């Protein structure tokens, strides 16, 4: 693709450039909200919350200081963006290891309901 990697959302060292986008990914993330037995505390709902905070803060900062256009995405980018989520394999993989096929199939709508939350806040083009 010959494109640079996106700066991570949690990267606050130096001057991160979010003009081309922001990376909310975490290794081992899960689709359902985390609990004490979860392998990673960063579930999909946390990543959606991070996106909501990021978008609100970007729009707030751009309204105050136009010089930040060099570092932050424009408001239009949020409408046109492609949102890639590589999440759900850990939950599904674990389900296949410990549940019957019928239980796994019953689990799939729960997974999709988590993505509906993302759609409700403006995430509209997904690669999963």
TrEMBL record:
A GO term, aspect molecular function: hydrolase activity, acting on ester bonds
Keywords tagged on the record: Glycoprotein
Gene3D superfamilies xrefs: SGNH hydrolase (3.40.50.1110)
Domain of life: Eukaryota
Entry similarity comment: Belongs to the 'GDSL' lipolytic enzyme family.
Protein name: GDSL esterase/lipase
């Amino acid at each position: 693709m010959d494109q640079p990697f996106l700066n991570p959302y949690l990267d606050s060292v130096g001057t991160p450039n979010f003009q081309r986008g922001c990376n909310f990914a975490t290794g081992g993330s899960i689709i359902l909200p985390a609990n004490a037995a979860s392998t990673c505390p960063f579930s999909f709902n946390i990543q959606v919350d991070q996106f909501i905070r990021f978008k609100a803060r970007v729009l707030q900062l751009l309204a105050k200081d136009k010089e930040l256009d060099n570092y932050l995405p424009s408001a239009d980018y949020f409408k046109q963006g492609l949102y890639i989520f590589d999440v759900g394999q850990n939950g599904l993989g674990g389900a296949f290891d410990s549940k019957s096929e019928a239980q796994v199939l019953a689990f799939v709508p729960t997974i999709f309901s988590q993505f509906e939350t993302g759609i409700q806040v403006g995430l509209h083009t997904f690669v999963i």
